[in-house]
Design brief:
It is globular, with a radius of gyration of 20 Å. It is built from 11 helices and 9 strands. It has 304 residues and is an alpha+beta fold. It has one domain. The strands form 3 sheets. The protein has a 4-stranded antiparallel β-sheet, with helices on both faces. The structure holds cobalamin (B12) and iron/sulfur cluster (2 copies).
C-alpha cells in the first residue's frame, strides 16, 4: 500500500510526466543493460566511457530508499547564433543539453514542497530511458530514443531514489506501434548508426558520440563534413520522425554570441577573463568550451 498516493501529482500538475517503481527491480534494470553487453551489442568504448558509471543498487548513504521516481520534462530545440565576419550564423542545440541541472533542481524542489513531510531524494545514476520504459512513462522509437505522446522525443529524463513507498509500475518495455511501418529514422541517419540487424543503436557510429568529445579529438573518417547539423549532438533521427510533428514546432532562441566572443572560441583559447566569461555563457546551454573551435568550424565550412 502506497504511503503517499498523490505525492507525484504536483509534478503532473506542472505538465510534466512522472512514474515510479520499487527498488526491488534494480537487478532487473542491471540485467536489461548487462544482457546486451554479454551478447556483444555494447562496445567496450561505450561501456567504458559511459555505462560503467551506473549504480544498480540502493545507495549506501541512503539505505531507506524504497522507490525510484522517473520524470520527463519537455524541452524545445534551442537556437544559438554566432556573429562571425559580419554574418549571423544560426545553429541549434538539441533538446536535453540546456538547463540540465535546472530540471533536476526543479523536480526536487517540487517534490519536497509537495510532500512537506521529510521526503528524501537522491539522484539515481542509472539508465533513465530503461527506467522510463520499464515504468510505462515512455515507449522506445526505432531510433532508440524514447517518446512521450505529448512531447514526442523532445524531453529530458531524470530519476531519483526516494524513501517514499510509491506505486510499482514495473512493466515490459515497448516500442511505438507506428515504427512498424515507418523506418524514416534508420533511412536518414547520416552515419548509419540505426540498422536492421538490431534494435540498439550502434552508439559508436552516432554523430553525437563524436561531437561531444573534446576539440582535440578529430572526427572519425566516416563522419563527413556535410553530416553536421547542430553545434553539438545530431537531430536527424528526431527531426524526420512523424511522432515529433508537433514537438519540432517548438524552438526557443537561447543565446547570441558577439563577433568578439565567436572569435575567441574560434581561436581555441582557454585562458584569461574571457575564457571564464565564455564558460559562464556556455554552461547553462550544456556546451563545454572544449568543444570549440572544432564543432563551430565544421558548421562554418558548410557555408563556404
Ligand atoms: C550513453 C548515452 C549516450 C551515448 C550512447 C547511446 C546509447 N544507446 O547508449 C551517445 C553519446 C551516442 C548518446 C546519444 C544521444 N543521446 Co544520450 N545518453 C546516454 C546516457 C548517459 C546513457 C544511455 C544508456 O542507458 N545506454 C545504455 C543502453 C543499453 O540503453 P538504451 O540505449 O536505452 O537501450 C535500451 C533499448 O535499446 C532496449 N532494447 C534493446 N533491444 C530492444 C528491442 C525492443 C523491441 C525494445 C522495445 C527495446 C530494446 O534495451 C536497452 C536497455 O534497456 C543517457 C543518460 C542516462 N543516465 O540515462 C543519455 C540519454 C539517453 N541521451 C539522450 C539524448 C537526447 C541523446 C541524443 C538524442 C542527443 C542528441 N540530440 O544528439 C542522442 C541519440 C542517439 C540515439 N539515436 O540513441 C537522452 C534521451 C531522452 C529521450 N527523449 O529519450 C538521455 C536520457 C539524457 C537525458 N537525461 O535526457 N547518448
Ligand atoms: S522515424 Fe519512424 S521508425 Fe523512427 S522512431 Fe519515428 S516513427 Fe519510429
Ligand atoms: S543522433 Fe544522428 S547519428 Fe545518432 S542515431 Fe540519430 S540520426 Fe544517427
Amino acid at each position: 500500500m502506497a504511503e503517499c498516493k498523490d505525492f507525484l501529482e504536483c509534478v503532473r500538475k506542472k505538465g510534466y510526466k512522472v512514474s515510479s517503481m520499487s527498488v526491488s527491480h534494480l537487478d532487473e534494470v542491471r540485467e536489461d543493460v548487462e544482457r546486451l553487453r554479454r551478447d556483444g551489442l555494447l562496445s567496450n568504448e561505450i561501456y567504458d566511457e559511459y555505462l560503467f558509471r551506473f549504480k544498480y543498487r540502493i545507495p549506501e548513504s541512503f539505505p531507506a530508499a524504497k522507490s525510484i521516481i522517473v520524470a520527463s520534462v519537455p524541452q524545445p530545440v534551442c537556437e544559438l547564433t554566432f556573429n562571425w565576419e559580419g554574418r549571423r550564423i544560426r545553429t541549434i542545440i538539441p533538446p536535453t543539453y540546456a538547463k540540465a541541472v535546472d530540471v533536476d533542481m526543479e523536480i526536487v524542489s517540487m517534490l519536497e514542497r509537495c510532500d512537506g513531510n521529510g521526503v528524501h531524494l537522491m539522484r539515481a545514476i542509472l539508465p533513465h530511458k530503461t527506467l522510463a520504459a520499464r515504468t510505462g512513462l515512455v515507449k522506445y522509437g526505432r531510433n532508440n530514443i524514447t517518446y512521450v505522446p505529448e512531447f514526442g522525443s523532445y524531453h529530458r529524463l531524470t530519476s531519483f531514489f526516494t524513501n517514499r513507498e510509491l506505486p510499482d509500475n514495473w512493466q515490459k518495455t515497448e516500442v511505438m506501434e507506428r515504427c512498424a511501418d515507418c523506418g524514416a529514422c534508420a533511412r536518414k541517419c547520416p552515419t548509419k548508426a540505426i540498422s536492421d540487424d538490431r534494435f540498439l543503436v550502434h552508439a559508436e557510429r552516432c554523430l553525437t558520440l563524436h561531437n561531444e568529445r573534446p576539440n582535440d579529438v578529430p572526427f572519425p573518417k566516416f563522419v563527413s563534413p556535410d553530416m553536421h547539423n547542430a553545434i553539438i549532438g545530431c537531430m536527424v533521427c528526431q527531426k524526420v520522425c512523424p511522432a515529433n510533428a508537433e514537438a519540432k514546432k517548438r524552438m526557443v532562441s537561447c543565446a547570441e554570441l558577439s563577433e568578439e566572443e565567436t572569435e575567441f572560441l574560434m581561436k581555441g583559447d582557454r585562458s584569461g577573463p574571457m575564457a571564464k566569461n565564455m564558460v559562464e555563457r556556455l554552461e547553462p546551454l550544456g556546451l563545454e568550451i572544449d568543444l570549440f573551435p572544432r564543432n563551430l568550424q565544421v558548421l562554418l565550412d558548410q557555408m563556404r
